[in-house]
Amino acid sequence: MPITRRAFCQYATVTLVTAAFASSLPLFATEAEAADETVSMTELMAPQPLPDLALGQKTAPVTVVEYASMTCPHCAHFDETAFPQIKKNYIDTGKVRWILREFPLDPLAAAAFMLARCAAEQHGPERYYAMVNTLFHQQETWAVEKPIPPLLSIAKQAGFTEKSFKDCLANQKLLDKIQAERQRAIDQFHVNSTPTFFINGAKVEGALSYEDFSKKIDAELKGK
Fold first, then answer.
1. CA distances from residue 25 to 22, 76, 87 in whole angstroms, order as listed
2. Which terminus of the chain, N or C, has fewer Cβ atoms within 10 Å?
3. Number of helices followed by number of strands (H, E) in the chain
4. Is pLDDT of 182 > 70?
């Protein structure tokens, strides 16, 4: 079911409507599942509704594409526990190129992604991951019954004014592109839970530990 304008506006007025949005999808993968599916890297890296904002070198031998939702606690846990070590040991050393793509499970997650995209547009692409990281780390403060005040507070710390905050969340074209990216992941790559990763095209579902994730990266590196 798509993120409708009405549902999104209900979030902007502090009303939760997650059940209707995600009724046809499993919300979260709680652990890694066996995934034999591998998708074509040509298809995976084809132009998206929104341009990819990547970390790491374009020449890295391993490309990881992550589909996440900003309100997913497992995504936040992965970002806080496994990702910092992955960034240090693989992304910063030129071994991995990392791409996060938006897969919101509810309108509030879409709103958070919109703010991250707007932050990148206003202050440069590096602000996208900084905003995502901040929102994941403070998820418990804004992914609540009344999200707008804490979201606004976080946004102001990232350089938003109240006007730019409201303008960002009123950007229908941006919301449509996030929804289109999510739908493409469902239709073409069979993404139905978060987080879902594609490591050089190999599908991995669930919030893996750093140790388990690094084994999969190392296996790809050995194959190069």
1. 5, 19, 30
2. C
3. 12, 5
4. yes
Handedness of CA 161, 106, 182, 127 (dihedral sign): positive
- Do 104 and 182 form a contact (C-beta atoms < 8 A)? yes
CA distance 52 to 117: 11
Q: What is the pLDDT of residues 6-62, one digit of tens each?
A: 445 544 433 332 332 333 334 444 344 444 689 999 999 999 899 999 999 999 999
Task: Read off the tokens for 130.
Answer: 């900084």
**Region of residue 190 (phi > 0: left; psi between -120 and 50: alpha; otherwise: beta):** left
Q: Under a CB-based contact definition with an 8 Å cutoff, are residues 86 and 96 in contact?
A: yes
Give the tokens for residue 102: 């938006």
CB 136, CB 79: distance < 8 Å? yes
> Phi and psi (nearest 5°) for 70?
-70, -20
Q: Are strands 196-199 and 96-102 parallel, antiparallel or unpaired?
A: unpaired
Question: CA-CA distance, 144 to 120, in Å (whole number)?
Answer: 25
DSSP state of 158: T
Task: Say which residues have a Cβ less than 8 Å from residue 77's Cβ, sequence separation at least 6.
Answer: 207
Q: How far apart are CA 199 and CA 86, in angstroms?
A: 13
